[in-house]
């Protein structure tokens, strides 16, 4: 069917139609925790033990019975006998009785019998064996209790979480040295267009260099997938069908970066339809830029046809492919960072269409302003000059200059 | 000198003292643009040509002389003769005269003589050779001009920029297939502490697993550096000095993750002092958590001594090591993403000290709230439950519940 006659769906409706037929399965693998930065947990992790496993001091000082220090003051200090020291990295070999204390270091073990630590600054040495305590301590003071950080059996990190630096630390602290994470889905990228040439070749009049397959590959990498580029396929039905079949067989998700003309888009839709049932689910989304978008599921695998121009391709990637990769990773997507800013000039839009406007952020007299980056959506450099984008909702016919808007950062 | 007697510096003062002696040199390397996602440009890139290099159509339609369409309407269409088609990827072989048009595709070349494109929807075919134009177009309409995206000689991306997906696309669009980027600085990480054991070993009472060297390595990776772990060095002056000398010789930046007790910290300071002039510049920063921090420059290389507890180590990494790695990369650091939220409970602080409080973000009835994650700074899981942190400024003695605060996201 000719592109201009297709039924356009709103983005939420398009996503719903697609999602009905897309049933992602996470492929998991086990790797070393130390190598898992940025990977997505495929299974929740339960604490195999308490953390800490023994009572630890949070200060350098003397482990005591808190009761021995009650009422102590610089004028009337409590007098205690030092019975030894707990060396770092060793179990406390001594027991603290009434009127006794042991020297402990920050992080060291609290000896049995003691229930609090007096900071060294609040003590004074009397002689080789005795000290004065100038301030009272309460039971538990300057002590980390067993399991205070984490209790054995607690779920410490849930499946779907993308691991951060501190998460690796938390897992290793518990002795969890390997984790079950989602394998990166393979994202096949097929470029079409007789006008498209590889970036390392000189361009002749009428030709343009391939931008999208590299930009899309980088976006896929950023989302946690492994991109596989299938080259630039000429405007030839058989060649395109061959590349499509190969990408569909080898990858978990296939993206067609269509040539920009109607005939390429129609050919792409036909080729996608042949990759398997149910095939094309959405052809045309009420998004600007990005209207001529195809969402399909073919024999269980998600397949997308993206508009040829780079700004549209990126808008659609964020809108549909990022959440699809997250689903293949089992990732619980957290909202992208957003900032509030004031709009620097009027933006017009049509009701019934979501507009995405690239903006540059500028601070003016302490206020953040969102300055729309002007330019046709065919211009790659609008993306490069932008810090993020803002959405003009479906039911809006525009936003006035000066209004507060939410900018989603790239 | 004993730790408790050192002169404490405010964070800005500490950074100033350190920066006076730290003169970073960027080590550059040339790599393929396609592989440069996340890398930092070591040289600004200038456009080697115009983009686009020829006039392109932004729509499917007919290239015409705009003047031929003036006054056209559905009731009184303009009549033009179609003299041919411009195939995609080819130079336009025909010239458009008065009263003539050529079929062009989106992204295709505008033939000489034409100055605008009428969208196909606004035309009607009369016979094999002629069409009617129902709407006037103005000169330049639906045409991207030569150099409209980028002009030859423009600086398209500046040195110091961390490359994003769309930046790679922009470079490749210009045929810039290799780029000069900063080589990742090598960050040596030396852990000390008799109580610290490798994460894959069972812990005995009094021992803890190494967390910091892995968390710090992941933070270094995230910042764009290559971490090199030098293992866990026992509380032995000679062993520590040996590891320090090796790390200092092999790396561009050295971090000591000190054992938590005063004696380890003092020993670390002494060992750092011997690595070269000027040595220790700051020993003690008015930050909570993170006070017992060492900033040093030894024979031209930055060296840091971090507190042993994981929360402090991460606060100090963000405060001093992230900008140091950025300096070694020549990176223009952009502000970390921040959000505004309301504080869920009172936070007390002391004037003259910067406090960093880990918070979890919660949406309550459409408003974002920052909920402080309670827990001693020795607890790694406070970091894991937190989405970001907020700063209580030097001159503040706290923040009241309900106040709007700025949360810097992790």
Could you write a compact summary of the structure shown?
The structure is a homodimer of 410-residue chains. Chain A is α/β, with parallel strands linked by helices.
Describe this structure in words.
The structure is a homodimer of 410-residue chains. Chain A has seven helices and 28 strands. The two termini of chain A are 35 Å apart. The first copy, chain A, has four domains: 171 residues, 3-Layer(aba) Sandwich (Molybdenum Cofactor Biosythetic Enzyme, Chain A); 56 residues, Molybdopterin biosynthesis moea protein, domain 2, CATH 3.90.105.10; 89 residues, Molybdopterin biosynthesis moeA protein, domain 3 (Beta Complex), CATH 2.170.190.11; 72 residues, MoeA, C-terminal, domain IV (Beta-clip, Beta Barrel). In chain A, helix 4 packs across helix 5. Chain A has a six-stranded mixed β-sheet, with no helix packed on it. In chain A, strands 16-13-17-21-20-18 form a six-stranded mixed β-sheet, sandwiched between helices. In chain A, strands 22-25-24-26-28 form a five-stranded mixed beta barrel. Chain A is an alpha/beta fold. Chain A is 20% helix and 31% strand. At the A-B interface, helix 2, strand 15, helix 3, helix 5 and strand 22 of A face helix 2, strand 14, strand 15, helix 3 and strand 22 of B.
């Amino acid at each position: 069917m000719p592109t201009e006659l297709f039924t356009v769906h709103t983005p939420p409706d398009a996503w719903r139609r697609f999602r009905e037929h897309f049933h992602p399965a996470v492929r998991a693998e086990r790797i070393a925790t130390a190598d898992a930065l940025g990977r997505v947990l495929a299974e929740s992790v339960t604490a195999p033990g308490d953390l800490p496993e023994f009572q630890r001091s949070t200060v350098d000082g003397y482990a005591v019975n808190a009761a021995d220090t009650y009422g102590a003051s610089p004028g009337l200090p409590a007098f205690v006998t030092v019975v030894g020291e707990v060396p770092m990295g060793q179990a406390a070999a001594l027991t603290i009785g009434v009127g006794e204390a042991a020297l402990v270091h920050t992080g060291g073990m609290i000896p049995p019998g003691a229930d609090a630590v007096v900071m060294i600054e609040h003590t004074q040495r009397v002689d080789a064996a005795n000290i004065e305590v100038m301030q009272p301590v309460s039971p538990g003071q300057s002590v980390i209790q067993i399991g205070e950080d984490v209790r054995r059996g607690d779920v410490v990190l849930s499946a779907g979480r993308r691991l951060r630096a501190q998460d690796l630390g938390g897992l290793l602290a518990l002795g969890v040295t390997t984790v079950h994470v989602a394998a990166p889905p393979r994202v096949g990228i097929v470029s079409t267009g007789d006008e498209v040439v590889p970036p390392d070749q000189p361009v002749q009049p009428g030709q343009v260099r391939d931008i999208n397959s590299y930009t899309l590959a980088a976006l896929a990498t950023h989302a946690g997938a492994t991109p596989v580029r299938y080259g630039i396929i000429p405007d030839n039905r058989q060649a395109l069908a061959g590349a499509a079949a190969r990408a569909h067989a080898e990858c978990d998700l296939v993206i067609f970066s269509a040539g920009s003309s109607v005939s390429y888009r129609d050919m792409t839709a036909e080729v996608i339809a042949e990759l398997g049932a149910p095939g094309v689910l959405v052809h045309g989304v009420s998004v600007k830029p990005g209207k001529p978008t195809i969402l399909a599921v073919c024999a269980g695998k998600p397949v997308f046809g993206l508009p040829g121009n780079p700004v549209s391709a990126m808008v659609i990637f964020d809108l549909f492919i990022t959440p699809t990769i997250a689903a293949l990773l089992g990732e619980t997507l957290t909202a992208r960072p957003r900032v509030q800013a004031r709009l620097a000039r009027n933006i017009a839009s049509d009701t019934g269409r979501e507009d995405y406007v690239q903006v540059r952020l500028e601070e003016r007299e302490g206020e953040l302003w969102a300055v729309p980056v002007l330019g046709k959506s065919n211009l790659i450099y609008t993306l490069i000059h932008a810090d993020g984008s803002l959405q003009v909702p479906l039911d809006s016919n525009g936003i006035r200059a000066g209004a507060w808007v939410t900018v989603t950062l790239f």
